[in-house]
Design goal:
single chain, alpha+beta, four-stranded antiparallel beta sheet, Gyrase A, domain 2, 3 domains
């Protein structure tokens, strides 16, 4: 068994305690200072890496500018000019284009059961239709719808079309207005 005797006077104990606290405070300050220095070193390193990257990027941009010469610009201007000429040609072609699908849509709205269209031919703005109607009344109604349509004019409907009562073979001719089948301006 050991017996420990504390022979240190109380004043000296107080000094030892203060000395210990001072060493702890200094130790903490050194640790904080080291962490702060480490943090600054990391920031400096990041700054350095960013500078190197920026300089590298500037060099690449400068090299790209040097490689993109005046001749290349002239080539691109010439290509753009040719593309614009081609687009202008396409617009000219489209401007004169007629959309016969508009005529087909209007005829489709007018045709009802009992009317069959066998052939449809065009010359300029004149349309020639042939077909078969199952009754005289259906054919007369179809002719009436054609004459009432604002896009059709000069509907030529021979009376010979109405000779039979049933299964009438008919033909008719009419003109379509330009506005109804022209392209959008």
């Amino acid at each position: 068994m050991e017996i420990k005797l504390n022979l240190v006077p109380p004043l000296r104990k107080e000094e030892i305690k203060k000395s210990y606290l001072l060493r702890m405070i200094v130790k903490w300050q050194v640790e904080v200072l080291l962490i702060f220095i480490l943090f600054l070193a990391i920031l400096w390193h990041i700054s350095y890496v960013l500078k190197v990257e920026a300089i590298s990027n500037l060099k690449q941009i400068e090299m790209a500018r040097q490689s993109f010469s005046y001749k290349d610009m002239q080539d691109y201007k010439e290509k753009i000019k040719n593309a614009n000429v081609q687009i202008a040609d396409i617009k000219k072609i489209q401007k004169g284009q007629l959309y016969w699908s508009e005529l087909m849509g209007k005829l489709n709205e007018m045709i009802f059961s009992g009317i069959e269209i066998d052939s449809l031919s065009t010359k300029d703005y004149e349309i020639f239709l042939t077909g078969v109607a199952d009754s005289r009344d259906n054919l007369a109604n179809f002719k009436e719808k054609l004459t009432q349509e604002s896009c059709f004019k000069e509907v030529d409907f021979p009376l010979a079309n109405l000779m039979n009562k049933e299964n009438l073979a008919f033909q008719m001719q009419f003109t379509i207005k330009k506005e109804c089948i022209e392209t959008i301006k």
